[in-house]
Design a protein that fits this description.
It is built from 3 helices and 10 strands, in the order H-E-E-H-E-E-E-E-H-E-E-E-E. By secondary structure, it is α+β, with helices and mostly antiparallel strands. The strands form 2 sheets. Strands 3-4-5-6-10-9-8-7 form an 8-stranded antiparallel beta sheet, covered by helices on one side. Strands 1-2 form a two-stranded antiparallel ribbon. The longest helix is centred in the middle third of the chain and has 19 residues, at about 95-110. The radius of gyration is 20 Å and the shape is globular.
C-alpha cells in the first residue's frame, strides 16, 4: 500500500512538472504585458538609448544601441505595447538575404515551428511565425536599399 501511494505521488509530480507552461508573448524576454515606460526602462538597462529625433512621443519610441546592428521601434497606445519592430542596417542585398535566412532559421529552431511564407522571392521574403500569443514576422525588402526587419505583434484577444 505504501509503495502504491509513493507511485501515485511520483506520477502526480511527473505530470505536474511535464505540463507545458504557457508563457506570455515576449520580445527578447520582455513580456508584452509591460507598460511602455517599463519596457523602455528595461531596454535602457540593456544599453539602448531613446532616439528622440525619430520618436513620436504619443505613438512610437525608437531605441538604438551602438553595440547592435538594429534599431528598435516600439508602437504603443495608452502605455500598452502594440508592436515592436527591429530594423537592421546592412549594406548589401547579399548580406540582408543571409541575415534573413539566419533569423528565420533561428526562430524556427527556437519556436519549434515552420513559418508561413506568403512571399519568397529573391529580394522580397516574408516569414510569419505563430508564437503562442503573437506573430513574429521576418521581412526582407531589397528594392533600392536593403531593408530587413523583424516585427513582433501580439494577437488580439478573441471576444
Amino acid at each position: 500500500m505504501k509503495n502504491l501511494a509513493l507511485f501515485f505521488l511520483a506520477l502526480l509530480a511527473f505530470v505536474a512538472c511535464s505540463q507545458e507552461q504557457k508563457s506570455p508573448f515576449s520580445y527578447r524576454g520582455l513580456a508584452f504585458t509591460l507598460s511602455t515606460s517599463q519596457f523602455v526602462d528595461s531596454m535602457q538597462a540593456r544599453g539602448f538609448a531613446v532616439d528622440s529625433a525619430a520618436s513620436d512621443s504619443g505613438r512610437t519610441v525608437v531605441l538604438a544601441s551602438p553595440k547592435e546592428k538594429y534599431r528598435v521601434l516600439v508602437a504603443f497606445h495608452d502605455q500598452q505595447l502594440q508592436a515592436i519592430q527591429e530594423n537592421y542596417s546592412l549594406s548589401t542585398n547579399d548580406s540582408t538575404r543571409r541575415m534573413w535566412q539566419q533569423l528565420r532559421d533561428g526562430l524556427e529552431k527556437e519556436l519549434g515551428a515552420w513559418p508561413d511564407c506568403p512571399m519568397l522571392k529573391d529580394d522580397h521574403k516574408i516569414a510569419n511565425f505563430d508564437a503562442t500569443d503573437g506573430i513574429i514576422s521576418v521581412i526582407l525588402e531589397n528594392t533600392y536599399r536593403p531593408t530587413l526587419s523583424v516585427r513582433y505583434t501580439p494577437k488580439k484577444p478573441e471576444k
